[in-house]
Amino acid sequence: MSGSFAPGDAVQVIATHPPGHRRTPFYIRGKVGEIERVCGDFANPEELAYGFDGLPKKTLYRVRFKQSHVWPNYSGPETDTVDVDIYEHWLLPA
Amino acid sequence: MAEERGTHEHDHDHDHDHDLTFQPNIEDSDPSRYELMTYAMRELLMERGHLTPEELRAAQEKVESLEKSDGAKVIAKAWTDPEFKQRLLDDGNSALAELDIDAGAAKMTVVENTDDVQNVVVCTLCSCYPRAVLGMPPDWYRSKSYRSRVIIEPRKVLSEFGTEVPDDMTVRVHDSLADLRYLVIPRRPEGTDDWTEEQLASIVTRDTMVGVSNPTAS
């Protein structure tokens, strides 16, 4: 497995808005979370969508974010989270 | 101009006619651009002999008739066999294969409801769903309302489903976006200690495995 992040690492989702078929939802861009697990290497769906081979494969992570960080007006407890699967090329160390 | 579904008009010449018509899945709105592209592809595949209407219907029937009890069977086994449950949590695809369930290419990610955590699954971008285990997603799962709201106000949406989560429990939303599919192991209800796997499976419904509901012993 080629990923450069490990469970527990703090990461920030890149706040960029390229056109095209992107699998990182807008609401999570720019947010800081923690790697929950490494899911493995997958052909990049952002390339597969256009008929390319999606290679080299990209490492996929599950990243856990606190809801109160993602949504400033979140009304539930501080402990509530949202887990999002995000590809390595969308993540920076935080 | 409104077009009849399954046919289209041409402003250019072809050396053949598209005269196939199809039974639509739903009829509540005009087809979107992508649906039209799908219809065009279907016409071409059939015209060129790669696919027959019977093959298409049979494939659709298979997907739409996958038994949700496949999932219930998995959960009942996880409740009664802690080692199986651990294997399911560690590697969903291979644990499902033990039960002859082929979860496909997607990575089955299994999460467990506990006394402290309620998990709930959504796909905010489209409608990723563990079809191999749960069959077709319910309409509400695909609705824009559920997809946009459960991520922002999960407790309110759960409450609208009749599921109240106390503040001392964590609500964990899982956004299933591309290569992961989620299955929730619900909490095993009190008073089911002497139940058989079959009895247990009978109370595990689709919605409990998406996380918007919890099974009860009654």
Mean pLDDT of chain A: 92
Q: What is the helix/strand order of chain A?
A: EEHEHEE
Report the portion of residues of chain A in β strands: 35-45%
Q: Count the beta strands of chain B.
A: 4
Regions with little confidence, pLDDT below 50 for 5+ residues of chain B: 1-8
CATH architecture of chain A: Roll
Characterization of the model:
The complex is a heterodimer of chains A (94) and B (218). Chain A is mainly beta and 94 residues long. Chain A has a single domain, classed as SH3 type barrels, CATH 2.30.30.50. Chain A is built from 2 helices and 5 strands. In chain A, strands 4-3-2-1-5 form a 5-stranded antiparallel β-sheet. The longest helix of chain A has 4 residues. The two termini of chain A are 21 Å apart. The model of chain A has no long low-confidence stretch (mean pLDDT 92). Chain B is globular. Chain B is of the alpha/beta class. Chain B has 2 domains: 65 residues, no CATH class; 142 residues, Nitrile hydratase alpha /Thiocyanate hydrolase gamma (Nitrile Hydratase, Chain A, Alpha-Beta Complex), CATH 3.90.330.10. Chain B contains 11 helices and 4 strands; from the N terminus they run αααααββααααββαα. At the A-B interface, β2 and β4 of A face β3 of B. β4 of chain A pairs parallel with β3 of chain B.
Summarize the structure.
By secondary structure, chain A is mainly β.
Strand and helix layout:
The complex is a heterodimer of chains A (94) and B (218).
Chain A: E1 10-13, E2 32-42, H1 45-48, E3 58-66, H2 67-70, E4 81-87, E5 91-93
Antiparallel strand pairs in A: 1-2, 1-5, 2-3, 3-4
Chain B: H1 33-47, H2 53-64, H3 69-80, H4 82-90, H5 92-98, E1 107-112, E2 117-122, H6 131-134, H7 139-142, H8 144-152, H9 154-160, E3 170-175, E4 180-185, H10 197-201, H11 206-210
Parallel strand pairs in B: 1-4, 2-3
Helix pairs in contact in B: 3-4, 4-5, 8-9
